Description:
Blueprint: H1 12-26, H2 31-68, H3 71-118, H4 123-129, H5 137-176, E1 181-184, E2 187-190, H6 194-214, H7 217-240, H8 242-247, H9 251-303, H10 309-326, H11 328-362, E3 366-371, E4 376-384, E5 390-399, E6 404-408, H12 415-423, E7 429-436, E8 441-444, E9 453-454, H13 455-460, H14 470-479, E10 492-493, H15 495-498, H16 501-515, E11 519-522, H17 531-544, E12 549-553, E13 565-570, E14 576-580
Parallel strand pairs: 3-7, 5-14, 6-12, 6-13, 8-11, 11-12
Antiparallel strand pairs: 1-2, 4-5, 4-7, 9-10, 13-14
Helix pairs in contact: 1-11, 2-3, 2-5, 2-10, 3-5, 5-10, 5-11, 6-9, 6-10, 6-11, 7-9, 7-11, 9-10, 14-16
Amino acid sequence: MPLVHTHALFGPRFVRHLGRLTRLYWTSSDALKGGLLLAATVALELGTVYGNVQLARTQGRIFDAFGDKQMAAFTSAIALFLGVAFFFVFASTYRIYLRQALEIRWRHWLTDHFIQEWITAHAYCQIELHRKATDNPDQRIAEDVREYVSSALGLSLSLLSAVATLISFALMLWKLSESWKFQVDGNHFQIPGLMLWVAILYAVIATWITNRVGRKLAGIQFDRQRFEADFRFKLVRFRENVEPIALANGEAAERRFALERFHRVIGNWWQLIRAQRNLTLVTTGIGQANSLVPLLVAAPAFFAGHMTLGSVMQTRIAYGEVSGGLTWFVNAYQEIARWRANIERIVTLAEEIESTRDELERTECVHVERAIGSTLRLDHVRLARPDGAVLIQDANAELRPGDRVALVGPMGSGKRTLLRAIAGIWRFGKGVIEVPDRTRTLILSQRPHLPIGTLREVISYPEPAGTFPDDEIREVMGLLDLRSLENRLDETEHWQQHLSGGEQQRLALARTFLIKPDWIFLDEATSGLDEATEARVYKLLRERLPCAGIVSIADRPGLAQYHSRRWVLEPGAGGAVLEAA
Protein backbone atom coordinates (compact mmCIF):
# COMPACT_ATOMS: atom_id res chain seq x y z
CA MET A 1 0.00 0.00 0.00
CA PRO A 2 1.25 3.56 -0.75
CA LEU A 3 2.06 5.78 2.18
CA VAL A 4 -0.88 7.78 3.47
CA HIS A 5 -0.57 11.58 3.44
CA THR A 6 0.04 12.77 6.98
CA HIS A 7 -0.41 16.54 6.89
CA ALA A 8 -1.92 17.82 10.13
CA LEU A 9 -5.68 18.27 10.05
CA PHE A 10 -5.20 21.87 11.16
CA GLY A 11 -2.01 23.83 10.67
CA PRO A 12 -0.40 26.57 8.56
CA ARG A 13 -0.77 24.52 5.37
CA PHE A 14 -4.50 23.99 5.94
CA VAL A 15 -5.08 27.66 6.81
CA ARG A 16 -3.13 28.81 3.74
CA HIS A 17 -4.99 26.48 1.38
CA LEU A 18 -8.40 27.24 2.89
CA GLY A 19 -7.82 30.99 2.66
CA ARG A 20 -6.68 30.76 -0.95
CA LEU A 21 -9.62 28.65 -2.06
CA THR A 22 -12.20 30.69 -0.17
CA ARG A 23 -10.91 34.01 -1.56
CA LEU A 24 -11.47 32.83 -5.14
CA TYR A 25 -15.26 33.10 -4.91
CA TRP A 26 -15.63 35.75 -2.21
CA THR A 27 -13.58 38.28 -4.18
CA SER A 28 -15.36 37.50 -7.47
CA SER A 29 -18.06 39.47 -9.29
CA ASP A 30 -20.68 37.04 -7.93
CA ALA A 31 -19.68 37.63 -4.30
CA LEU A 32 -22.34 40.33 -3.72
CA LYS A 33 -25.25 38.03 -4.61
CA GLY A 34 -23.62 35.20 -2.73
CA GLY A 35 -23.14 37.50 0.28
CA LEU A 36 -26.84 38.39 0.34
CA LEU A 37 -27.76 34.71 0.31
CA LEU A 38 -25.22 34.02 3.04
CA ALA A 39 -26.55 36.85 5.21
CA ALA A 40 -30.11 35.53 4.88
CA THR A 41 -28.92 32.00 5.67
CA VAL A 42 -27.01 33.20 8.74
CA ALA A 43 -30.07 35.13 9.95
CA LEU A 44 -32.25 32.03 9.64
CA GLU A 45 -29.55 29.89 11.29
CA LEU A 46 -29.56 32.22 14.28
CA GLY A 47 -33.37 32.28 14.16
CA THR A 48 -33.35 28.51 14.43
CA VAL A 49 -31.12 28.70 17.51
CA TYR A 50 -33.47 31.29 19.05
CA GLY A 51 -36.43 29.03 18.32
CA ASN A 52 -34.61 26.14 19.98
CA VAL A 53 -34.05 28.21 23.13
CA GLN A 54 -37.73 29.16 23.28
CA LEU A 55 -38.79 25.55 22.72
CA ALA A 56 -36.65 24.48 25.69
CA ARG A 57 -38.23 27.13 27.90
CA THR A 58 -41.78 26.26 26.86
CA GLN A 59 -41.09 22.56 27.50
CA GLY A 60 -39.97 23.52 31.02
CA ARG A 61 -43.29 25.37 31.49
CA ILE A 62 -45.22 22.34 30.17
CA PHE A 63 -43.57 19.94 32.64
CA ASP A 64 -43.97 22.41 35.52
CA ALA A 65 -47.69 22.61 34.69
CA PHE A 66 -47.76 18.79 34.73
CA GLY A 67 -46.05 18.72 38.13
CA ASP A 68 -48.42 21.37 39.56
CA LYS A 69 -51.45 19.78 37.86
CA GLN A 70 -52.47 23.20 36.43
CA MET A 71 -54.64 22.71 33.35
CA ALA A 72 -54.80 26.40 32.42
CA ALA A 73 -51.01 26.80 32.63
CA PHE A 74 -50.60 23.61 30.62
CA THR A 75 -52.94 24.85 27.85
CA SER A 76 -51.17 28.20 27.70
CA ALA A 77 -47.76 26.51 27.50
CA ILE A 78 -48.97 24.21 24.70
CA ALA A 79 -50.27 27.18 22.66
CA LEU A 80 -46.96 28.99 23.10
CA PHE A 81 -45.08 25.83 22.13
CA LEU A 82 -47.08 25.50 18.90
CA GLY A 83 -46.36 29.11 17.94
CA VAL A 84 -42.64 28.73 18.59
CA ALA A 85 -42.60 25.37 16.79
CA PHE A 86 -44.16 26.96 13.67
CA PHE A 87 -41.47 29.65 13.62
CA PHE A 88 -38.77 27.03 14.20
CA VAL A 89 -39.99 24.83 11.32
CA PHE A 90 -40.12 27.82 8.93
CA ALA A 91 -36.64 29.07 9.86
CA SER A 92 -35.14 25.58 9.83
CA THR A 93 -36.57 24.75 6.39
CA TYR A 94 -35.62 27.97 4.63
CA ARG A 95 -32.12 28.11 6.10
CA ILE A 96 -31.47 24.80 4.29
CA TYR A 97 -33.10 26.05 1.07
CA LEU A 98 -31.08 29.28 1.00
CA ARG A 99 -27.88 27.43 1.89
CA GLN A 100 -28.41 25.09 -1.06
CA ALA A 101 -29.10 28.06 -3.34
CA LEU A 102 -25.79 29.60 -2.26
CA GLU A 103 -24.09 26.22 -2.71
CA ILE A 104 -25.27 26.11 -6.33
CA ARG A 105 -23.95 29.63 -7.06
CA TRP A 106 -20.64 29.00 -5.35
CA ARG A 107 -20.06 25.65 -7.03
CA HIS A 108 -21.14 27.03 -10.42
CA TRP A 109 -18.63 29.88 -10.24
CA LEU A 110 -15.77 27.77 -8.85
CA THR A 111 -16.27 24.95 -11.37
CA ASP A 112 -16.40 27.46 -14.21
CA HIS A 113 -13.18 29.03 -12.88
CA PHE A 114 -11.27 25.74 -12.82
CA ILE A 115 -12.60 24.65 -16.22
CA GLN A 116 -11.37 27.95 -17.65
CA GLU A 117 -7.99 27.45 -15.98
CA TRP A 118 -7.58 23.78 -16.93
CA ILE A 119 -9.02 23.54 -20.44
CA THR A 120 -6.59 25.92 -22.14
CA ALA A 121 -3.89 25.75 -24.79
CA HIS A 122 -1.45 25.02 -21.93
CA ALA A 123 -3.33 21.88 -20.82
CA TYR A 124 -0.98 19.65 -22.79
CA CYS A 125 2.01 21.29 -21.08
CA GLN A 126 0.34 20.89 -17.68
CA ILE A 127 -0.04 17.15 -18.24
CA GLU A 128 3.53 16.78 -19.49
CA LEU A 129 5.03 18.70 -16.56
CA HIS A 130 2.81 17.26 -13.82
CA ARG A 131 1.87 13.85 -15.19
CA LYS A 132 2.36 12.14 -11.81
CA ALA A 133 1.20 14.93 -9.49
CA THR A 134 -1.96 15.94 -11.38
CA ASP A 135 -3.90 12.73 -10.98
CA ASN A 136 -7.49 12.87 -12.21
CA PRO A 137 -8.05 16.61 -12.68
CA ASP A 138 -11.55 15.77 -13.93
CA GLN A 139 -12.48 14.30 -10.55
CA ARG A 140 -10.97 17.24 -8.70
CA ILE A 141 -13.06 19.71 -10.70
CA ALA A 142 -16.28 17.66 -10.74
CA GLU A 143 -16.36 16.04 -7.30
CA ASP A 144 -13.84 17.73 -5.02
CA VAL A 145 -15.20 21.21 -5.84
CA ARG A 146 -18.75 20.04 -5.12
CA GLU A 147 -17.80 18.45 -1.79
CA TYR A 148 -15.61 21.39 -0.80
CA VAL A 149 -18.44 23.90 -1.31
CA SER A 150 -21.01 21.68 0.41
CA SER A 151 -18.79 21.07 3.44
CA ALA A 152 -17.58 24.68 3.59
CA LEU A 153 -21.16 25.89 3.99
CA GLY A 154 -22.35 22.97 6.09
CA LEU A 155 -19.44 23.10 8.52
CA SER A 156 -19.27 26.89 8.82
CA LEU A 157 -23.01 27.28 9.39
CA SER A 158 -23.14 24.37 11.82
CA LEU A 159 -20.20 25.93 13.68
CA LEU A 160 -22.04 29.26 13.78
CA SER A 161 -25.12 27.46 15.09
CA ALA A 162 -23.00 25.65 17.67
CA VAL A 163 -21.46 28.90 18.91
CA ALA A 164 -24.85 30.68 19.04
CA THR A 165 -26.40 27.67 20.79
CA LEU A 166 -23.51 27.53 23.23
CA ILE A 167 -23.88 31.21 24.15
CA SER A 168 -27.69 31.05 24.40
CA PHE A 169 -27.94 27.86 26.43
CA ALA A 170 -24.81 28.52 28.51
CA LEU A 171 -26.63 31.44 30.16
CA MET A 172 -29.66 29.24 30.81
CA LEU A 173 -27.49 26.43 32.16
CA TRP A 174 -25.59 28.82 34.44
CA LYS A 175 -28.80 30.19 35.92
CA LEU A 176 -30.30 26.74 36.41
CA SER A 177 -27.24 25.48 38.29
CA GLU A 178 -26.28 28.80 39.85
CA SER A 179 -27.20 27.89 43.43
CA TRP A 180 -26.85 24.12 43.51
CA LYS A 181 -25.39 22.73 46.70
CA PHE A 182 -23.81 19.34 47.20
CA GLN A 183 -22.54 17.63 50.31
CA VAL A 184 -19.18 15.87 50.84
CA ASP A 185 -18.38 14.33 54.27
CA GLY A 186 -21.01 16.48 55.91
CA ASN A 187 -19.70 19.70 54.38
CA HIS A 188 -21.83 21.73 51.97
CA PHE A 189 -20.25 23.11 48.81
CA GLN A 190 -21.55 25.38 46.09
CA ILE A 191 -19.99 25.97 42.63
CA PRO A 192 -21.84 28.67 40.66
CA GLY A 193 -22.83 27.38 37.23
CA LEU A 194 -21.72 23.84 38.08
CA MET A 195 -23.34 22.21 35.06
CA LEU A 196 -21.62 24.61 32.65
CA TRP A 197 -18.18 23.72 34.05
CA VAL A 198 -19.03 20.02 33.82
CA ALA A 199 -20.00 20.46 30.14
CA ILE A 200 -16.77 22.35 29.36
CA LEU A 201 -14.57 19.77 31.08
CA TYR A 202 -16.35 16.90 29.35
CA ALA A 203 -16.02 18.61 25.91
CA VAL A 204 -12.28 19.27 26.36
CA ILE A 205 -11.59 15.63 27.25
CA ALA A 206 -13.82 14.35 24.40
CA THR A 207 -12.16 16.63 21.81
CA TRP A 208 -8.66 15.57 22.83
CA ILE A 209 -9.55 11.87 22.65
CA THR A 210 -11.31 12.28 19.28
CA ASN A 211 -8.37 14.07 17.69
CA ARG A 212 -5.94 11.44 18.95
CA VAL A 213 -8.04 8.60 17.56
CA GLY A 214 -9.12 10.16 14.25
CA ARG A 215 -6.19 12.26 13.06
CA LYS A 216 -5.20 9.74 10.34
CA LEU A 217 -8.55 10.12 8.60
CA ALA A 218 -7.58 13.16 6.47
CA GLY A 219 -4.73 11.32 4.76
CA ILE A 220 -6.81 8.18 4.26
CA GLN A 221 -9.62 10.25 2.68
CA PHE A 222 -7.11 11.93 0.34
CA ASP A 223 -5.86 8.56 -0.90
CA ARG A 224 -9.41 7.17 -1.13
CA GLN A 225 -10.46 9.82 -3.63
CA ARG A 226 -7.31 9.25 -5.70
CA PHE A 227 -7.63 5.45 -5.78
CA GLU A 228 -11.36 5.57 -6.57
CA ALA A 229 -10.73 8.01 -9.44
CA ASP A 230 -7.86 5.89 -10.82
CA PHE A 231 -10.07 2.79 -10.81
CA ARG A 232 -12.97 4.60 -12.50
CA PHE A 233 -10.63 6.11 -15.09
CA LYS A 234 -9.28 2.65 -15.98
CA LEU A 235 -12.81 1.34 -16.61
CA VAL A 236 -13.64 4.37 -18.76
CA ARG A 237 -10.46 3.85 -20.79
CA PHE A 238 -11.48 0.22 -21.40
CA ARG A 239 -14.91 1.28 -22.60
CA GLU A 240 -13.41 3.82 -25.00
CA ASN A 241 -10.86 1.35 -26.41
CA VAL A 242 -12.82 -1.89 -26.30
CA GLU A 243 -12.29 -2.73 -29.99
CA PRO A 244 -8.46 -2.41 -30.14
CA ILE A 245 -8.24 -4.27 -26.82
CA ALA A 246 -10.37 -7.10 -28.18
CA LEU A 247 -8.31 -7.25 -31.40
CA ALA A 248 -5.14 -7.53 -29.32
CA ASN A 249 -6.70 -10.22 -27.07
CA GLY A 250 -6.00 -7.90 -24.19
CA GLU A 251 -9.05 -8.65 -22.04
CA ALA A 252 -7.06 -10.66 -19.47
CA ALA A 253 -4.46 -7.91 -19.17
CA GLU A 254 -7.15 -5.24 -18.82
CA ARG A 255 -8.89 -7.27 -16.12
CA ARG A 256 -5.56 -7.59 -14.31
CA PHE A 257 -4.86 -3.85 -14.55
CA ALA A 258 -8.39 -2.97 -13.38
CA LEU A 259 -8.21 -5.39 -10.45
CA GLU A 260 -4.81 -4.03 -9.42
CA ARG A 261 -6.36 -0.57 -9.13
CA PHE A 262 -9.40 -1.99 -7.37
CA HIS A 263 -7.20 -3.77 -4.83
CA ARG A 264 -5.76 -0.37 -3.94
CA VAL A 265 -9.32 0.85 -3.42
CA ILE A 266 -10.08 -2.14 -1.17
CA GLY A 267 -6.87 -1.75 0.82
CA ASN A 268 -7.58 1.92 1.39
CA TRP A 269 -11.20 1.09 2.21
CA TRP A 270 -10.08 -1.26 4.98
CA GLN A 271 -7.88 1.51 6.37
CA LEU A 272 -10.83 3.87 6.24
CA ILE A 273 -13.40 1.62 7.92
CA ARG A 274 -10.94 0.66 10.67
CA ALA A 275 -10.23 4.32 11.36
CA GLN A 276 -13.95 5.13 11.23
CA ARG A 277 -14.71 2.16 13.53
CA ASN A 278 -12.27 3.43 16.13
CA LEU A 279 -13.59 6.97 15.83
CA THR A 280 -17.24 5.84 15.98
CA LEU A 281 -16.55 3.78 19.10
CA VAL A 282 -15.12 6.88 20.75
CA THR A 283 -17.73 9.41 19.57
CA THR A 284 -20.72 7.12 20.22
CA GLY A 285 -19.41 6.22 23.65
CA ILE A 286 -18.81 9.88 24.43
CA GLY A 287 -22.34 10.75 23.27
CA GLN A 288 -24.07 8.02 25.26
CA ALA A 289 -22.13 8.75 28.43
CA ASN A 290 -22.77 12.46 28.02
CA SER A 291 -26.54 11.95 27.96
CA LEU A 292 -26.40 10.63 31.55
CA VAL A 293 -24.20 13.39 32.96
CA PRO A 294 -26.91 16.06 33.55
CA LEU A 295 -29.26 13.56 35.22
CA LEU A 296 -26.51 12.21 37.49
CA VAL A 297 -25.39 15.69 38.52
CA ALA A 298 -28.94 17.08 38.93
CA ALA A 299 -30.39 14.06 40.77
CA PRO A 300 -29.13 14.98 44.27
CA ALA A 301 -30.59 18.50 44.00
CA PHE A 302 -33.93 17.16 42.71
CA PHE A 303 -34.27 14.49 45.40
CA ALA A 304 -33.34 17.08 48.03
CA GLY A 305 -36.26 19.21 46.85
CA HIS A 306 -34.13 22.05 45.43
CA MET A 307 -35.39 21.53 41.84
CA THR A 308 -38.70 20.94 40.10
CA LEU A 309 -39.24 18.32 37.40
CA GLY A 310 -39.49 21.12 34.83
CA SER A 311 -36.12 22.50 35.97
CA VAL A 312 -34.57 19.06 35.59
CA MET A 313 -35.91 18.80 32.05
CA GLN A 314 -34.69 22.30 31.22
CA THR A 315 -31.29 21.47 32.67
CA ARG A 316 -31.08 18.28 30.63
CA ILE A 317 -32.04 20.12 27.40
CA ALA A 318 -29.72 23.06 28.12
CA TYR A 319 -26.83 20.75 29.00
CA GLY A 320 -27.38 18.76 25.80
CA GLU A 321 -27.32 21.93 23.68
CA VAL A 322 -24.26 23.37 25.43
CA SER A 323 -22.46 20.06 25.25
CA GLY A 324 -23.39 19.73 21.56
CA GLY A 325 -21.92 23.17 20.88
CA LEU A 326 -18.75 22.38 22.80
CA THR A 327 -18.32 18.98 21.13
CA TRP A 328 -19.01 20.31 17.61
CA PHE A 329 -15.49 19.31 16.59
CA VAL A 330 -16.09 15.75 17.84
CA ASN A 331 -19.32 15.35 15.87
CA ALA A 332 -17.97 16.99 12.70
CA TYR A 333 -14.57 15.27 12.72
CA GLN A 334 -15.17 12.82 9.86
CA GLU A 335 -16.60 15.51 7.59
CA ILE A 336 -13.70 17.82 8.43
CA ALA A 337 -11.27 15.06 7.44
CA ARG A 338 -13.01 14.64 4.06
CA TRP A 339 -13.13 18.40 3.59
CA ARG A 340 -9.42 18.68 4.36
CA ALA A 341 -8.70 16.14 1.60
CA ASN A 342 -10.94 18.03 -0.88
CA ILE A 343 -9.14 21.30 -0.19
CA GLU A 344 -5.73 19.66 -0.57
CA ARG A 345 -6.62 18.18 -3.97
CA ILE A 346 -8.22 21.34 -5.37
CA VAL A 347 -5.43 23.66 -4.26
CA THR A 348 -2.77 21.23 -5.51
CA LEU A 349 -4.40 21.35 -8.93
CA ALA A 350 -4.49 25.15 -8.85
CA GLU A 351 -0.82 25.26 -7.82
CA GLU A 352 0.17 22.98 -10.69
CA ILE A 353 -1.72 25.10 -13.21
CA GLU A 354 0.02 28.21 -11.91
CA SER A 355 3.37 26.40 -11.79
CA THR A 356 3.03 25.55 -15.48
CA ARG A 357 2.14 29.12 -16.38
CA ASP A 358 5.00 30.54 -14.31
CA GLU A 359 7.48 28.04 -15.69
CA LEU A 360 6.54 28.83 -19.27
CA GLU A 361 6.77 32.57 -18.58
CA ARG A 362 10.02 32.26 -16.66
CA THR A 363 11.92 30.05 -19.08
CA GLU A 364 12.50 30.23 -22.81
CA CYS A 365 9.65 28.78 -24.78
CA VAL A 366 8.20 28.66 -28.25
CA HIS A 367 6.06 31.72 -29.00
CA VAL A 368 3.20 31.56 -31.47
CA GLU A 369 2.54 35.12 -32.63
CA ARG A 370 0.01 36.72 -34.93
CA ALA A 371 1.80 38.66 -37.65
CA ILE A 372 1.01 40.93 -40.57
CA GLY A 373 1.37 39.23 -43.94
CA SER A 374 0.23 36.05 -45.64
CA THR A 375 3.06 33.61 -44.79
CA LEU A 376 3.28 31.18 -41.88
CA ARG A 377 6.90 31.28 -40.75
CA LEU A 378 9.17 29.24 -38.42
CA ASP A 379 11.90 31.54 -37.14
CA HIS A 380 14.81 29.79 -35.37
CA VAL A 381 12.49 27.31 -33.67
CA ARG A 382 14.09 24.79 -31.35
CA LEU A 383 11.83 22.13 -29.83
CA ALA A 384 12.67 20.12 -26.72
CA ARG A 385 11.15 17.60 -24.35
CA PRO A 386 9.98 18.76 -20.90
CA ASP A 387 13.28 17.44 -19.47
CA GLY A 388 15.24 19.72 -21.83
CA ALA A 389 16.41 17.12 -24.37
CA VAL A 390 16.43 18.76 -27.84
CA LEU A 391 14.18 17.22 -30.51
CA ILE A 392 14.53 19.76 -33.34
CA GLN A 393 17.28 22.38 -33.53
CA ASP A 394 17.02 25.81 -35.16
CA ALA A 395 14.20 25.16 -37.64
CA ASN A 396 13.52 27.85 -40.25
CA ALA A 397 10.78 27.43 -42.85
CA GLU A 398 7.92 29.19 -44.60
CA LEU A 399 4.46 28.06 -45.63
CA ARG A 400 2.65 30.22 -48.15
CA PRO A 401 -1.03 30.13 -49.11
CA GLY A 402 -1.63 27.30 -51.57
CA ASP A 403 1.61 25.42 -50.65
CA ARG A 404 1.42 21.62 -50.41
CA VAL A 405 4.23 20.40 -48.14
CA ALA A 406 5.15 16.81 -47.24
CA LEU A 407 6.80 16.58 -43.78
CA VAL A 408 9.13 13.57 -43.81
CA GLY A 409 11.66 12.09 -41.43
CA PRO A 410 12.37 8.92 -39.46
CA MET A 411 10.31 7.87 -36.44
CA GLY A 412 11.15 9.94 -33.36
CA SER A 413 12.53 12.89 -35.32
CA GLY A 414 9.85 15.26 -33.97
CA LYS A 415 7.33 15.54 -36.83
CA ARG A 416 4.26 15.45 -34.57
CA THR A 417 5.91 17.68 -31.99
CA LEU A 418 6.44 20.28 -34.72
CA LEU A 419 2.71 20.23 -35.54
CA ARG A 420 1.86 20.57 -31.83
CA ALA A 421 4.15 23.59 -31.62
CA ILE A 422 2.45 25.24 -34.61
CA ALA A 423 -0.91 24.55 -32.92
CA GLY A 424 0.38 26.37 -29.83
CA ILE A 425 0.15 23.45 -27.40
CA TRP A 426 3.86 22.49 -27.32
CA ARG A 427 5.82 25.32 -25.71
CA PHE A 428 9.02 23.53 -24.69
CA GLY A 429 11.96 25.06 -26.53
CA LYS A 430 12.45 28.53 -28.00
CA GLY A 431 11.91 30.55 -31.15
CA VAL A 432 8.96 32.17 -32.86
CA ILE A 433 6.19 30.74 -35.04
CA GLU A 434 4.48 33.55 -36.95
CA VAL A 435 0.91 32.88 -38.06
CA PRO A 436 -0.81 35.47 -40.28
CA ASP A 437 -3.40 37.46 -38.40
CA ARG A 438 -7.09 36.66 -38.93
CA THR A 439 -6.39 33.22 -40.34
CA ARG A 440 -7.50 29.86 -39.01
CA THR A 441 -5.43 26.73 -38.41
CA LEU A 442 -6.77 23.17 -38.33
CA ILE A 443 -4.78 20.07 -37.38
CA LEU A 444 -6.24 16.65 -38.21
CA SER A 445 -4.83 13.67 -36.32
CA GLN A 446 -4.93 9.96 -37.05
CA ARG A 447 -7.64 9.49 -34.40
CA PRO A 448 -9.85 12.60 -34.55
CA HIS A 449 -11.88 13.71 -31.57
CA LEU A 450 -15.59 12.99 -31.98
CA PRO A 451 -17.60 14.44 -29.08
CA ILE A 452 -20.57 12.51 -27.73
CA GLY A 453 -23.63 14.22 -29.18
CA THR A 454 -25.66 14.45 -32.35
CA LEU A 455 -23.91 13.75 -35.64
CA ARG A 456 -24.58 17.38 -36.61
CA GLU A 457 -22.62 18.50 -33.53
CA VAL A 458 -19.80 16.09 -34.35
CA ILE A 459 -19.36 17.20 -37.95
CA SER A 460 -19.62 20.90 -36.98
CA TYR A 461 -17.10 20.63 -34.10
CA PRO A 462 -15.63 22.88 -32.73
CA GLU A 463 -18.32 25.21 -34.09
CA PRO A 464 -21.78 24.91 -32.49
CA ALA A 465 -24.46 22.83 -34.18
CA GLY A 466 -26.44 24.95 -36.63
CA THR A 467 -23.40 26.87 -37.87
CA PHE A 468 -23.55 25.11 -41.24
CA PRO A 469 -26.72 24.49 -43.30
CA ASP A 470 -27.81 20.87 -43.61
CA ASP A 471 -27.55 21.04 -47.40
CA GLU A 472 -23.87 21.96 -47.13
CA ILE A 473 -23.26 19.23 -44.55
CA ARG A 474 -24.90 16.60 -46.77
CA GLU A 475 -22.90 17.80 -49.78
CA VAL A 476 -19.52 17.32 -48.10
CA MET A 477 -20.66 14.01 -46.62
CA GLY A 478 -21.48 12.85 -50.13
CA LEU A 479 -18.04 13.90 -51.36
CA LEU A 480 -16.44 11.65 -48.73
CA ASP A 481 -18.69 8.59 -49.17
CA LEU A 482 -20.64 9.21 -45.96
CA ARG A 483 -24.09 9.13 -47.54
CA SER A 484 -25.16 6.30 -45.25
CA LEU A 485 -24.96 8.76 -42.36
CA GLU A 486 -26.82 11.66 -43.99
CA ASN A 487 -30.15 10.79 -42.34
CA ARG A 488 -28.63 10.39 -38.88
CA LEU A 489 -27.69 14.01 -38.23
CA ASP A 490 -30.04 14.27 -35.24
CA GLU A 491 -29.02 10.96 -33.66
CA THR A 492 -26.99 11.09 -30.45
CA GLU A 493 -24.32 8.40 -30.12
CA HIS A 494 -20.83 7.73 -28.84
CA TRP A 495 -19.66 8.03 -32.47
CA GLN A 496 -16.06 7.10 -31.72
CA GLN A 497 -17.30 3.61 -30.84
CA HIS A 498 -19.92 3.30 -33.59
CA LEU A 499 -17.81 4.34 -36.60
CA SER A 500 -14.84 2.62 -38.18
CA GLY A 501 -11.43 4.30 -38.23
CA GLY A 502 -11.87 5.24 -41.89
CA GLU A 503 -15.33 6.71 -41.27
CA GLN A 504 -13.99 8.76 -38.38
CA GLN A 505 -11.20 10.17 -40.54
CA ARG A 506 -13.61 11.00 -43.37
CA LEU A 507 -15.93 12.71 -40.89
CA ALA A 508 -13.02 14.86 -39.67
CA LEU A 509 -12.09 15.69 -43.27
CA ALA A 510 -15.71 16.71 -43.88
CA ARG A 511 -15.28 19.27 -41.08
CA THR A 512 -12.34 20.68 -42.99
CA PHE A 513 -14.47 21.43 -46.05
CA LEU A 514 -17.12 23.05 -43.84
CA ILE A 515 -14.75 25.18 -41.75
CA LYS A 516 -12.46 26.10 -44.70
CA PRO A 517 -9.29 26.81 -42.67
CA ASP A 518 -6.36 28.77 -44.06
CA TRP A 519 -3.72 26.34 -42.76
CA ILE A 520 -4.25 22.57 -42.64
CA PHE A 521 -1.89 20.08 -40.97
CA LEU A 522 -2.54 16.40 -41.54
CA ASP A 523 -1.01 13.98 -39.00
CA GLU A 524 -1.67 10.66 -40.76
CA ALA A 525 -5.24 11.89 -41.12
CA THR A 526 -5.79 9.64 -44.16
CA SER A 527 -4.06 6.49 -42.82
CA GLY A 528 -7.39 4.63 -42.54
CA LEU A 529 -8.35 5.27 -46.18
CA ASP A 530 -7.59 3.20 -49.23
CA GLU A 531 -5.29 4.68 -51.89
CA ALA A 532 -8.12 5.69 -54.22
CA THR A 533 -10.02 7.52 -51.46
CA GLU A 534 -6.83 9.16 -50.23
CA ALA A 535 -6.06 10.43 -53.74
CA ARG A 536 -9.61 11.80 -54.04
CA VAL A 537 -9.25 13.60 -50.64
CA TYR A 538 -6.10 15.43 -51.80
CA LYS A 539 -7.75 16.26 -55.10
CA LEU A 540 -10.74 17.73 -53.23
CA LEU A 541 -8.40 19.74 -51.01
CA ARG A 542 -6.71 21.17 -54.09
CA GLU A 543 -10.00 21.96 -55.85
CA ARG A 544 -12.15 23.22 -52.95
CA LEU A 545 -9.44 24.84 -50.79
CA PRO A 546 -6.88 26.04 -53.35
CA CYS A 547 -5.59 28.88 -51.15
CA ALA A 548 -5.06 26.78 -48.03
CA GLY A 549 -1.49 25.99 -47.00
CA ILE A 550 -1.24 22.25 -46.30
CA VAL A 551 1.43 20.22 -44.45
CA SER A 552 1.10 16.42 -44.28
CA ILE A 553 3.19 14.01 -42.24
CA ALA A 554 4.26 11.65 -45.02
CA ASP A 555 5.19 8.41 -43.27
CA ARG A 556 3.79 6.37 -46.19
CA PRO A 557 5.88 6.50 -49.38
CA GLY A 558 2.99 7.27 -51.73
CA LEU A 559 1.76 10.30 -49.81
CA ALA A 560 4.52 12.66 -50.97
CA GLN A 561 3.21 12.61 -54.56
CA TYR A 562 0.29 14.85 -53.58
CA HIS A 563 2.63 17.64 -52.45
CA SER A 564 4.86 20.06 -54.32
CA ARG A 565 7.33 20.77 -51.52
CA ARG A 566 9.11 18.85 -48.74
CA TRP A 567 10.22 19.58 -45.20
CA VAL A 568 12.78 16.96 -44.23
CA LEU A 569 13.85 16.26 -40.65
CA GLU A 570 17.33 14.75 -40.55
CA PRO A 571 18.42 13.35 -37.15
CA GLY A 572 21.58 14.87 -35.70
CA ALA A 573 23.66 14.74 -32.52
CA GLY A 574 22.01 17.85 -31.08
CA GLY A 575 18.51 17.15 -32.42
CA ALA A 576 16.93 16.86 -35.85
CA VAL A 577 17.66 19.47 -38.53
CA LEU A 578 14.79 20.77 -40.67
CA GLU A 579 15.60 21.17 -44.35
CA ALA A 580 12.89 23.01 -46.28
CA ALA A 581 12.72 22.55 -50.03
